[in-house]
Design a protein that fits this description.
Elements: H1 6-15, E1 19-22, H2 31-41, E2 46-49, E3 58-60, H3 66-73, H4 77-92, H5 98-107, E4 110-111, E5 121-123, E6 144-145, E7 149-153, E8 160-164, E9 167-171, E10 174-177, H6 184-195, E11 199-205, H7 209-216, H8 225-233, E12 238-241, E13 248-250, E14 255-261, E15 268-270, E16 273-274, E17 280-281, E18 284-286, E19 288-296, E20 302-304, H9 314-324, H10 326-332, E21 337-341, E22 351-356, H11 363-371, E23 382-387, H12 395-405, E24 412-418, E25 431-438, E26 469-473, E27 479-484, H13 493-506, E28 511-514, H14 523-533, H15 537-540, E29 541-544, E30 548-552, E31 566-567, H16 574-583, E32 610-611
Helix pairs in contact: 4-9, 4-10, 5-8, 7-8
């Protein structure tokens, strides 16, 4: 059922035992993020920080479990996916039933003429200091709105967009808006620049949680996000006009911040910001947003999230997306796709696994090529395609499937292409190497000079001795984790390649992964996250011997040929950790949870958001 603002959703969370209220004072600067990080990574509940120095409670971690994700949408993501698939099938089949017409009617947002519930309180003298805006991590450039739905309109086509772009507070009437070059908001900004006019903007927080999800969803450009929200909630979204501009916003939003962006104005050096990649996104130039009016509902709640080293709350948004958008991908891009998975360690864009229904030679590579050019999937850095009866969320079985069906000499597709703006490992911003792995079962027409599976695996390898790196077998897999013997020291890669080739000639090792010495202790999840984030597959991937792959996932800041700044890992400072330890007992959050940031202490380079060589 639809929710009438965050207050009604809070009531539902309490009924389901999914909310904890923290009534003792907690500082929005650093403390709330440290507490939330502990709760999220221990599979805890949604949090309502009622005492934060303002009149607005902070609601956080509302999407941070499968159950709460389903509560937020009013149904499970699987049920939303089934409804979308049924609707598409009936429409493409030519059905014009009353049911389909009703579904279409409920999808389209409805404008209402009265003053909205989101306009029960109007602050014409705008002052952003009334809100408990978070500063999440010690090197953040300031306080950031982390779940703002930013509404813009194209000046000529009048097409609308509601995107999720973080906003850094500059002063009480101004923020920066971090819409990246690939985003619709940035496209609208460029269009307003061409017509030479100020760009109206409205920012929404709260309302029905389906609005927040829809703003994060990978919809095609010019598709109204409130159509998706209407479909999910089964009821049209009521929209009202802002007080100081013509933009329409949801009637039941908790908070609306109205204003404009002046394209003729100098850009602002926004950031740094501890981002969902687990690293800081470094400072860069973005437009200023000038606030003209603030409106709220009577009992408004401030909605926020934190991002950082995965898994975080955003992992459950991605998990919902992979289910909900499977049908549209099948319909619009590749009908043979049967499943899609975005592991949390891949932070949405670094790693994806796709399962297909295979029927002809080369189909795996065809799907790889297609997805590397499809919408937001085009930002994927590592993409694995499988087929057959395999659960792509069962990682041990998935690894076994990939090993059985992949010959690295023929089944790897290395290309250059667009990357997410937040990727820090490529030589050039937003452009770099990508790797597609065709791990489908090979059929007649694809087999070359040997049968799959000819190379036998063994459970335990002898411990190799290499000149400049230490080697440790990863579990009982034919994988080795390598780490430099001298931290931050140079490695003679030509010599290392020769040593690895000699070893792989004697033993059927399939993968060598080079990472920093302190990463391996964090387990396979941390290894996977770190390696994916810190590598460019084309630059850092080599074929070794007859059927072995090497990937260098170490910090490139110490390589004189790397010209970009290299970001630090996101982590709380020791004083914040100790401060939260001291107040934990009075928060009503149960037994003390150790800080996840303690696990990253040896990965941090002191003093800045980036590593300075």
């Amino acid at each position: 059922m639809p929710y009438n603002g965050l207050s009604s959703f809070i009531k539902r969370l309490e009924e389901e035992g999914e909310l904890v209220r923290a009534s003792s004072f907690v500082d929005p600067v650093l403390e709330i993020s440290e507490i939330t990080d502990r709760i999220v990574k221990s599979n805890g509940k949604a949090l309502l920080f009622e005492n934060n120095g303002t009149n607005y409670p902070i609601l956080i971690n509302i999407f941070g479990s499968d159950k709460r994700m389903a509560l937020a949408l009013g149904k499970s993501p699987e049920d939303v996916a089934k409804e979308i698939e049924t609707f598409f099938e009936s429409v493409t089949g030519g059905s014009r039933s009353i049911k389909n017409i009703g579904t279409l009617f409920n999808v389209i947002p409805k404008r209402i003429k009265r003053k909205g519930k989101c306009q029960e309180v109007i602050f014409k003298e705008a002052d952003l200091s009334i809100f408990p805006v978070l500063k999440s991590w010690p090197f953040d450039g300031g306080r950031f709105f982390t779940l703002p739905i930013v509404h813009t309109v194209h000046p000529e086509t009048k097409k609308k967009n509601a995107g999720m772009y973080r906003m850094q507070v500059i002063d009480n009437k101004t923020t920066a808006i971090h819409w990246q070059r690939h985003k619709t908001g940035a496209n609208h900004f460029e269009a307003w620049k061409k017509v030479g006019k100020k760009m109206p903007v409205a920012v929404v927080l709260g309302g029905d949680p389906s609005y927040t999800y829809s703003a994060t969803a990978p919809l095609p450009e010019n598709i109204d996000e409130y159509m998706l929200a209407g479909f999910i909630r089964g009821k049209r979204v009521k929209m009202v006009k802002c007080v100081t501009n013509e933009i329409l916003v949801p009637d039941d939003a908790d908070i609306v911040i109205e204003g404009y962006v002046d394209p003729s104005e100098e850009l602002f050096l926004e950031g740094p910001f501890g981002d969902h990649t687990g690293f800081y996104s470094l400072s860069d130039w973005y437009p200023k947003f000038h606030v003209t009016c603030i409106t709220t509902s009577k009992n408004a709640v401030f909605l926020a999230t934190i991002v950082g080293v995965p898994p975080m709350e955003d992992a459950f948004l991605s998990k919902a997306t992979e289910k909900i958008f499977l049908s549209p991908i099948k319909l619009a891009i590749q009908p043979e796709i049967e499943d899609l998975h975005l592991p949390a360690e891949g932070v949405s864009h670094n790693f994806a696994v796709v399962k297909i229904r295979k029927s002809y030679p080369g189909q795996g590579k065809k799907v790889i090529s297609s997805l590397f050019g499809a919408g937001q999937m085009s930002f994927t850095k590592y993409l694995v395609v499988v087929d057959g009866d395999i659960d792509i969320r069962d990682y041990p079985k998935l690894v076994g499937h990939v090993l059985r069906n992949t010959d690295f000499r023929r089944d790897l597709l290395f290309i250059d292409g667009p990357l997410d703006v937040l990727d820090h490992a490529s030589d050039n911003p937003a452009f770099g190497g990508k790797l597609g792995i065709d791990a489908t079962g090979k059929i007649e027409g694809e087999l070359v000079d040997r049968k799959d599976g000819e190379q036998k695996n063994i459970d335990k390898f002898p411990e190799p001795v290499f000149k400049e790196v230490l080697a440790k077998q990863l579990e009982n897999l034919p994988f080795f984790i390598l780490s430099p013997k001298q931290k931050n020291g140079g490695i003679d890669f030509d010599n290392l390649k020769a040593e690895l080739t000699d070893f792989s000639t004697l033993f059927p090792v399939r993968l060598f992964l080079l990472i920093e010495p302190d990463v391996e202790a964090g387990g396979t999840g941390m290894i996977t996250w770190y390696l994916l984030a810190n590598s460019d597959p084309v630059r850092d991937g080599w074929l070794i011997g007859s059927n072995c792959l090497f990937i260098d996932g170490t910090i490139k800041a110490f390589n004189s040929g790397f010209k970009r700044r290299w970001p630090n890992v996101v982590s709380s400072s020791l004083d914040t950790i100790e401060r939260v330890d001291a107040i934990w007992g009075g928060l009503g959050l149960g037994k003390l949870i150790e800080s996840p940031s303690r696990n990253y202490k040896n990965l941090i380079f002191p003093g800045k958001d980036f590593i300075q060589v």
